[in-house]
Amino acid sequence: DTGVSQDPRHKITKRGQNVTFRCDPISEHNRLYWYRQTLGQGPEFLTYFQNEAQLEKSRLLSDRFSAERPKGSFSTLEIQRTEQGDSAMYLCASSYSDRGHDYGYTFGSGTRLTVV
Amino acid sequence: SQKIEQNSEALNIQEGKTATLTCNYTNYSPAYLQWYRQDPGRGPVFLLLIRENEKEKRKERLKVTFDTTLKQSLFHITASQPADSATYLCALDIGNTGFQKLVFGTGTRLLVSP
């Protein structure tokens, strides 16, 4: 396993277009998370999955955002009708769900979205 | 209101010295507190995790303390090296059972000069 993979690394899109990002987590991990990070800020939670079930969504995740994890493996994050304020780094992470270990989250390198 | 505060100013230290970074929080009751390292243009990398019932955790040159009364964590890097230069993020795990949602501070940039 080579860690958490995200694709693409960079995406430039015009305002109003739809974009989709993909995340491949570590296969042994059953939890998958999406975060968004803007310059000079820490990552902000968007949503997380346990296997294929989406268990929590942030209020930051407007109706234009949708995330899926159809078979409990990879996940996609789609943004419809992109706005300039959506420009950010979108980070995916995965982890175990039980409490009896000292491992944190494993993050991918992120997808840098620029809306022009 | 809920806040996580890390020193927004960069911390400059000389190689070989101990770096100490601070994370203070208000109005949270985290099950865990985690520290991450982030390099420019990369995702955060997990360093250490400490539970609410633990006072101290060590890993090689790293040490973290957690005081739930003061609502503060301290992160120490001993014998610092220029390769330790990065932004360090404090994160609170605030779900009821852990590993649900991390809330991050804004990070502190550490610069270690030779």
Strand-helix topology:
The complex is a heterodimer of chains A (116) and B (114).
Chain A: E1 5-7, E2 10-13, E3 19-24, E4 31-37, E5 44-50, E6 53-57, E7 65-68, E8 75-79, E9 88-95, E10 106-107, E11 111-115
Chain B: E1 3-6, E2 11-14, E3 19-26, E4 32-38, E5 45-51, E6 56-59, E7 62-67, E8 72-77, E9 86-93, E10 102-104, E11 108-113
Parallel strand pairs in B: 2-11
Antiparallel strand pairs in B: 1-3, 3-8, 4-5, 4-9, 6-7, 7-8, 9-10, 9-11
Mind explaining what this structure looks like?
The complex is a heterodimer of chains A (116) and B (114). Chain A has 116 residues and is mostly beta strands. Chain A has no helices and eleven strands. In chain A, strands 2, 4, 5, 6, 9, 10 and 11 form a seven-stranded mixed sheet that branches. Chain A is globular and about 45 Å long. With 114 residues, chain B is mainly β. Chain B has strands at 3-6, 11-14, 19-26, 32-38, 45-51, 56-59, 62-67, 72-77, 86-93, 102-104, 108-113. In chain B, the strands form two sheets. In chain B, strands 2, 4, 5, 9, 10 and 11 form a six-stranded mixed sheet that branches. In chain B, strands 1-3-8-7-6 form a five-stranded antiparallel sheet, with no helix packed on it. In chain B, strand 4 (32-38) and strand 5 (45-51) form a beta hairpin. The mean pLDDT of chain B is 93. The interface between A and B is medium-sized, with 30 and 27 residues.
